[in-house]
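An instance noted here:
***
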Amino acid sequence: MDNQSAVKYFAPLGLLVVLVTAGAAAAHTGGANDGALSVKNADGRVVMVGKGAVIGRFDKGQVTIKDPNPFDGTGPIVTGADRVEALGEKTTRYSGSNIRFRMIGGSFTATVFGTDIDLSVVGRGMVTLDGKIAKGSGANSDASYAVNGGAPEDFPHFVLTFPLAAPPSSAGG
């Protein structure tokens, strides 16, 4: 095989390897600075603005997902919605009962407003938990959240906003 034939043969193969590697890197969500959030049995609102992955479900309500770059992850995958409403070129609201959703990789804003919310987030960004809208009759008394594998805490009956990131590492050990 001469050099010109070899280039014609291996160039497409090399391009394929580059594309596969770039796609795998873009879909990678784990990183040294990633934090983790788990929410269980919450009634109210959970907002995540950042980069990473979110997977969740709720009994009744809505999830609004903004995907600013549809090429940097899976895009929203939502099942069970009774109604799907486009709120703009990159934002969609899904509402109904027994909805399941996920976004894996890339940047996103996910706002869940509902009852019996269960979700997990791994990534970096800002989180808002808001149980004040559910306070009173019907509020789920066993609702909880945990950050970075810590002990579960009661889901707040007020607006709580915090950064999601890896916990600071301890020196020496």
The chain is about 15% helix and 55% strand. The CA atoms of residues 117 and 173 lie 37 Å apart. The radius of gyration is 20 Å. The chain has two domains: 1-28, 31-164.
